[in-house]
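hiii so um. not sure if this is the right channel but i have a protein structure encoded as tokens and i wanna go backwards to a sequence. like what aa goes where. can anyone help
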């Protein structure tokens, strides 16, 4: 497998990548179903979501498990992939999507009980590479025409742009001669059963307008020349979309993803995900070393929150105005007042947590090393 660079801040999933080696799917070998394992419920699980009254968790080796009794008993689903699954999202009690390594996308229409391979990432990457080469060639030809009729004051800038475009064209052409590599998908979010986005490594952004039956490469719509990893994607109630990235960057779109601009948060580390408070409309980006930033104006400005914790945060969820964030070393922190105060939830188990969902009676169910577990609200202090 191809490793993602630690120095660019993709710390979480570089670490998790080691766990997926035994189950990597052989390219060109057809569909391999995830092995049914007696202890799958205690394996590394990266994310969890609600599908009506059902809990659905995903993780290493293509494992997907569901519970219909509040997590007391877990059933392993039949899943047509063995690659690591990173995130799962349900738009309602039936329709859900899971994404993971090799750019794979899975879909369920029965609340997570059964799954189909909706997108073979490696196969799709061949077409994406051809499209990118075509766009790069078009850009070079356009700049050459402009340069041919340019005035003296324009020549220098156009020549510099042309040199960069020719370099990009050479890179895309080289990819056509190599074995296709599909970067891992790190998050997925749907605004409706038809409209959805998936984000991933090396600046990958995909969009579907038909429930995932077809996915288009929208990476070029993001103003991201450095191909920063896109670790999270989400939308708010007003129609704006957000991408969590590296170097403190959050990309924002106000036109349904047709274009994305970087919003500088004032932070220079990595964000691993996003969560929206539906009660206030506030958008929260979370990441390294307990970092949480909030925007109350659709991404125009961002302010740092005092999360009360110092460990990296990898997952979050909101419910009835409450928001919980989980992460490294069993870290969890909760706010019930839209970020004004945070209550660290001290857990007896210190295994890493990667995903979380609000559940019944004020409880939360988290996923991590060793499977799923309930997060208790034994907070030691409230931090303002």
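sure thing!! here u go:
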């Amino acid at each position: 497998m191809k490793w993602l660079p630690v120095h660019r801040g993709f710390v979480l999933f570089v670490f998790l990548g080691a766990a997926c080696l035994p189950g990597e799917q052989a390219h060109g070998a057809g569909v391999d179903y995830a092995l049914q394992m007696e202890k799958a419920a205690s394996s590394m699980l990266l994310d969890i979501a609600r599908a009506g009254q059902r809990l659905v968790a995903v993780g290493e080796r293509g494992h997907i498990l569901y519970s219909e009794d509040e997590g007391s008993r877990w059933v392993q689903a039949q899943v047509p992939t063995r690659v690591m699954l990173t995130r799962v999202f349900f738009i309602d009690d039936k329709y859900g999507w899971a994404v993971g390594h090799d750019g794979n996308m899975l879909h369920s229409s029965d609340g997570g009980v059964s799954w189909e391979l909706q997108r073979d990432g490696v196969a799709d990457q061949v077409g994406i590479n051809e499209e990118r080469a075509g766009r790069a060639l078009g850009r070079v030809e356009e700049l050459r025409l402009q340069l041919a009729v340019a005035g003296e004051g324009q020549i220098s800038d156009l020549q510099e742009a042309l040199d960069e475009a020719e370099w990009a064209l050479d890179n895309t052409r080289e990819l056509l001669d190599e074995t296709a590599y599909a970067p891992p998908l790190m998050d997925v979010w749907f605004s409706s059963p038809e409209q959805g986005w998936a984000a991933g490594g090396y600046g990958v952004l995909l969009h579907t307008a038909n429930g995932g039956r077809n996915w288009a490469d929208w990476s070029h719509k993001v103003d991201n020349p450095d191909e920063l990893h896109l670790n999270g994607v989400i939308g708010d109630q007003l129609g704006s979309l957000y991408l969590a990235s590296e170097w403190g960057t959050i990309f924002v779109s106000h036109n349904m993803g047709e274009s994305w601009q970087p919003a500088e948060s004032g932070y220079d580390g990595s964000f691993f995900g996003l969560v929206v408070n539906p009660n206030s409309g506030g958008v929260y980006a979370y990441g390294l070393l307990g970092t949480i930033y909030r925007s109350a104006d659709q991404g125009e400005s961002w302010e740092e929150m005092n999360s009360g914790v110092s460990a990296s945060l990898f997952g979050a969820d909101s419910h009835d105005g409450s928001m919980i964030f989980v992460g490294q070393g069993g870290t969890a922190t909760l706010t019930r007042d839209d970020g004004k105060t945070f209550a660290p939830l001290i857990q007896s188990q210190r295994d890493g947590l990667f995903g979380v969902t609000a559940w019944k009676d004020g409880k939360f169910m988290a996923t991590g090393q060793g499977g799923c577990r309930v997060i208790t609200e034994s907070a030691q202090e409230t931090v303002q």
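oh and The first helix runs from residue 11 to 17.
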